[in-house]
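Summary for the steering committee. The consortium agreed at its last meeting that each partner would contribute one worked example illustrating the joint modelling workflow. Our contribution is presented below. We chose a case with several input lines so that the handling of multiple components could be demonstrated. No manual editing was applied between input and output; the record is shown as generated.
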Amino acid sequence: MTATHAIRAQFRGTIGKFALDAGFTAPAKGVTALFGPSGCGKTTVLRCIAGLLRINGVCEIDGEVWQDQNGAFLPTHKRPLGYVFQEASLFQHLSVRRNLLFGAPRHDSSGTKGAIVFDEVVELLGITRLLDRSPRNLSGGERQRVAIGRALLSQPKLLLMDEPLSALDRATKNEILPFLERLRDHLNLPVVYITHDIAEVERLADQMVLMEKGHVIGAGPLEDLQSDPSLPLATARDAAVSFEGVVQASEEAYGLVTLKLRGGVLTAPAPPAPVGERRRIRVIASDVSLTREAPGRSSILNVLPARIVSMKPLDTNEVVVVVALGSDGTGARLLSRMMRKSWGELGLAEGMSVYAQVKAVALAPGRGELG
Amino acid sequence: MKLTGLVAALVGFLTSLAAPVHADVTHVAVAANFTEPAKEIAALFKQKTGHEAVLIFGASGAFYTQITHSAPFEVFLSADAERPKMAVDNGYAVPDTLFTYAIGKLVLWSRVIDVTNGEAALKAGNFQKLSIANPVAAPYGTAAVETMKALGAYDALKPKIVQGNSIAQAFQFIDTRNAELGFVALSQLHGVTEGTRWEVPLKLHAPIFQDAVLLKTGANSEASKAFLAFLKGPEARAIIAKFGYVLELS
Amino acid sequence: MLGMPDEIWVPIKLTIELATISTLSLLVVATPLAWWLARSKAWFKEAAAAIVSLPMVLPPTVLGFYLLIALGPDGPGGLIASLWGARTLAFTFTGLVIGSILSSMPFVVQPIRNAFAAVGDRPLEVASTLRASPRRAFWTVALPLASPGLLTGAVLGFAHTVGEFGVILMIGGNIPGRTRVMSTAIFDFVETMRWREANLLAGGMVAFAFVVILAMTLLEKRFTRAGA
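What follows is the complete predicted structure of the assembly.
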C-alpha cells in the first residue's frame, strides 16, 4: 500500500457538542467498513471526506489532495466521488433514467478504460425495467438500487455509502446484499461503507475501521478486530469472528460442507458447494467451548486443537478467551465465552494447548444463493 | 390643525357637561374639502346650543350612494349642488331645507413654478403634469376644466392632466411635487405657506355651490335642524369665510 | 374591441397588461429573495422578512402615500425618470408596475420561500455529490422541486394585482390609455352612477380572476402529482 494508492483521511474538530478526532487510511481497492454504535461519528467522518462538512483536517484520495492543513479545500461538486445516502434521496422530479444520468459526464466516456457503463450498471443492479418510472412508484429496495447506480454513473474514484441498507427491512436487505457483493467483485473502486450491522461488514468488507465516541479505536482486517479483546467487539454478548475458508469437500447426504482455514478444518451445514470455492464463515463466541484433553465421542462435529492466546474477564462473571487454531497456535483466531468459574476450575492459562469445540458454524451464502 | 381640533373636541365635551337637559345628537355627512371649517363650527355649535354634531367626512358621491341605502346621516353637507338636489328629488331629503352654505374658491397652486400670474403660467405650459380632481368625483375638478377651457388652454393642457380621485389626492400630487402645479380648493391652502398661488377669477367657471340639506332621517331631530340654522348664522359664516370660501356671489 | 366601447375595453386591456408584467417581474425579483430567506443564516434574516411582509399589513393609502414620495422628484423614482427627461415615475405605467410589485411582494415571496425551505438541504447535497455546482443545483434541482410554490406565488401575485385598488388609485393619476386601469374606471362609473358599466367591469374582473385562479390551482395540482 503505497502513499499514492490509498485513501487517507484525518479530521479533528467540534460540531456543536460533538468532538471528532478520527483518522484512518484505507487501500485503494476494496470495501472498508466504518463501524461503530450510533452517534460515534461515522457519518460525520464520511461527510467530511465528501466535503459536505468542513472541519480541520486532511483528505487525500489516490494522490489527489481534497483537503489539507494549509486551508486547501476542494468543494464537494469538484470531488470525483459517489455518495449513497441512507434514504435513497432520489430526485422526485426526474425519472429513474434521468436520476441515473444526473451526475454522468456530458461527453460519452464509455470508451475510456475503466469507465462505468450505463447498460452494465443497470444490469448489475437489476433495474432495467424501472428506467422510465417515477421515483414515487418504486419500493424502498428499488430506490436504493437506483441511488447506488446513480452514484456509480458519475464515474467516481471513491464510493461512499452511509448505511445504505439500514432503512430497509430484513427481506429487502437480503435481496440487495448480493447486488452489493457483485458490485464489489466487479468494480475497481475503493468503497467506504458505513454500517452498524456486523453482518453487512462480514459479507462485504475486507477492512474495518472501528469507531467509538468520535475516535477511531481500531483499524485492520475484520477478523483481527473481532478477536482483539481490547476492543468492544470481542467483549459484546453476541461476539463472533468471521473469516474466509476454502471448500474442501461436500457431504451431500448429510447436507454438510467442509472448509479449510488457517490452522484447521470446519464442517458446517450447507447445500453442496464446488471444491475450491471461497466462503465466509462465522463462529459465535458462546458457541465455542474449550477442553484440556481431547474429548471422547461427542455430538459436536467440530473439535480442533488450538492454543490459548489471551483471556479477558467480563463484568458478568464470564470471561472471553482468544484461541488460535492449530496445535502450534498460529492459525485463525476464535473467541470462546465461558463462566469465570470454568476458567478457574479447568486451570486454564495463556499459552496452554486446548481443544476448541465449535457447536455451530454459520456459512454465508455462496454465489447464486439467496441469503 | 389637528391640535386645535383636539382642543375643540375637549372644550365641546366639557361644555356638554353643562348642557341643557334635552341635549341631542345629529350625524352630519361633510364633504372632505369642508373638514376643517366643519370641525370649528361643530365645536362652536356645541358650546352655544349644547347639541352635539357628529361629523363624518368623505366624498359627496359616496355619501349620496350611502344615503340612498339608509345610511344613518341626518344632515348632508355636499361639495356640490347636484347631490343635495338629487336627494330632494328622489325623496331622501326634506324639501325647502336646501341652501348654499358656502361657495367654493378654485386656486391654482404650485411648489415648483411661479404661478402668481396663473393665466400666463398655464398658457406657457412649462411643466409636465397638471393635477386636478377627477371631474366626475369633485366639482372642483369640473371647475378646473371649465377654467382651462375659458382660457382657451384646455386642448394644449389635456395631455398633461393627471386626476386625483378626490380633491385631497389632487392636493397630494402637487404637495409631493409629482405634479408641478394643479387646481385645488382655496380652503385646502389654509395655513399653507409654501409655493405660489393664483386665485381663479370666479367668472372663469360655473360657481361651485356647496349645498346643505336636511335628510328625511333627521326630519324630526331638533339637533339636526338647529345645526343647519347655526350654519346659516353669522358665527358660522365668519368661520367659513376665514377658511377661504365665498359667501355671496357679487 | 370585442364589441365593447373603448372606455370599457382599454381599462381591461391595461389591467391585464399590468397584472402580467407585474407578475413576471415579481417572479424575477421574488425568487432570489425567497431563496435567500429560505437558506440564509444571517442574523437579520427575519427582520428582512418582516420588512418584505409590511405591504400585507399597511393600508394601501399609507403604502400609496410613501410610494408617491418615492416615485416623485424627491425620491429615487424621480432620479430614474430624469434619465429620459421626466420628473417622476408616478402617473406612468412603469410607476404602476413598481407599485404593484411592492404591494404584491409578500404574497409572492412567502409561498416561494416555503417551497424552497421544503426542498431542504438533502437534494442539494445529493446534487453536489453528483458534480453539480451550486448554480447548476439551483436550476436543475431546487427550482423544479419548488415550482409548485412558484406557481402559487404567481397566481397570488396576479390575483392581488388585478384586485389592487388602493395603491394604484394613489399613484396612477387616472390617465386614459396609460394608468386608467379597471379599478379607477370602476370608481368613475360609480361616481357618475353608471351602474351598468360599473357592474360590467367589476363583475367581469371577479369572473376573470376566479377563472385564472381556478385554472392555475388545477394546473398546480397536476404538476405536483406528475413530476418526472
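Chain A has a mean pLDDT of 89. Residues 313 and 319 of chain A are 4 Å apart (CA to CA).
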